[in-house]
Amino acid sequence: MPTDNTWPNPSREAAEATLAAINPSAYARTRNHLSGAVTGLSPYLTHGMITLADVYHHVAARHTLPREHSLVRELGWRAFFAHAWAHLQDGIHQSQRPGPLPEAAYATTMPADIAAGCTGVTAIDHAVHTLHTTGLLHNHARLWLASYVVHGRRVHWHTGARWMHSLLLDGDLASNHLSWQWVAGTFSSKPYVFNADNVAQFAPPAWHSRGSAIDLSYPDWQQLATGQRPALPCGPTPAANATPDHVVTQPPPELNWQAPSAPPLRGQRVQLLHPWAVGQLDPHASCRIGVAMAAWHHAHPWHARRWHWIHHAMQPHTTACWWVPHVADLAQALAQASEVSVVANGHMRAAITAIRQALLAHAGAPRLRVIEPPALFAPVQPMARSFSAWWRRTQLA
Ligand SMILES: Cc1cc2nc3c(=O)[nH]c(=O)nc-3n(C[C@H](O)[C@H](O)[C@H](O)COP(=O)(O)OP(=O)(O)OC[C@H]3O[C@@H](n4cnc5c(N)ncnc54)[C@H](O)[C@@H]3O)c2cc1C
After folding, report:
1. Residue 7 — pLDDT band, cuts 50, 70, 90?
2. What are the residue ranges spanned by the domains of the chain?
3. Residue 376, ligand 1, Cβ within 6 A
4. Fold annotation for 107-225
5. Domain 248-371 is in which class?
6. Measured between alpha carbons, how far is 115 from 124 in angstroms, rounded to an integer?
7. How far apart are CA 199 and CA 206, in angstroms?
8. Residue 111 C-alpha to ligand 1 middle, in angstroms?
9. What's the 42 CA to ligand 1 centre distance in angstroms?
10. What residues have CB less than 8 Å from 22, skipping those under 6 apart?
11. Which band of pLDDT confidence, cut at 50, 70 and 90, is reported for residue 1?
């Protein structure tokens, strides 16, 4: 399952070419349109091949880029969600405030017609097919799809969030789950709704959905969201093989990730390179080992193609890639190293605590050195519960 040309190239050079192509004024004018000049940076940002600070400094060196520029604000959304996640931790999996309907009003399984992209609503079916083929989706299409799932079909936001995250190449728990909550109205002041007119304004003609189930007025959509109208009808039952399931809980066997073992690490300065910091190389490391923590991946399965993408991205930098079912085995394999470092990231928060503890159990084992990636925005304390509150209180670092 190679990474083909429907997916962006998993290399630092490709990330840099994507950066170089950013046109901030075209972005500001067109970013809400599906054909707009969006950056395509999210797979590189999610996997730490570049940082928000890299993006800002690269663009600001070539263009005027005030803090209020829409590109900086959008980078801010990513940082805001990471900020909220750092405070809420596992709370991102629970509704942060009551939504328009009681939790029990929403289904907790994904309807088969949505998962297969055969709802009969052209915009939704296009969005699902794009997600399946490219692992990516324009922000506006993510909003429409999430709104259709939660408010149109009355499926719980967490069910939708897990489903979308499993298919995304740029899947980031904070941006994804909190965006779904934002659409649901459980992390925002009101539910987000859309309609066929909105699709016609921002999507190419092939997506237009006039005359379909979403062709309602905004007051009608409000009534849908608040349960005063019945949920939208489902599409036909898809064929059994309509959605081949390539979502997996561990690296595909052909990538040959091994259990931790003790190669000659004695005296080495080892960096543990994980999927969310692939490009953040510790200059002091004498050897780098790719690691993926089984506990996390069992809870958050991914598309097999994403494993291939990450594997390709890691390969130039690593001497081995380890799949880690037991943190104690990792610590055992690292015990003879002279130093162990890892880049901090929300996805690795629990793992970093566990690795640190496990290393302490070995007399003479190195302490875990945690590297903080460069921040673009100054930290905000205590937690800001909305983007606007966070934006007022932060500044460019
Ligand atoms: C339901 C839903 C789920 C989402 N899930 C994810 C996810 O799992 N991973 C992810 O990276 N983004 C997610 N987003 C945010 C956004 O849709 C993507 O970051 C964006 O579409 C990526 O395309 P781009 O890089 O061309 O974005 P651009 O518009 O070019 O923006 C540049 C960068 O700014 C950040 N950004 C822009 N808009 C947003 C936003 N609304 N929220 C957070 N960050 C933003 C991203 O890092 C993006 O790469 C989600 C949005 C919604 C509505």
Report:
1. confident
2. 107-225, 248-371
3. no
4. DNA Cyclobutane Dipyrimidine Photolyase, subunit A; domain 3 (1.10.579)
5. alpha beta
6. 10
7. 10
8. 25
9. 6
10. 39, 41, 55, 58, 59, 71
11. very low
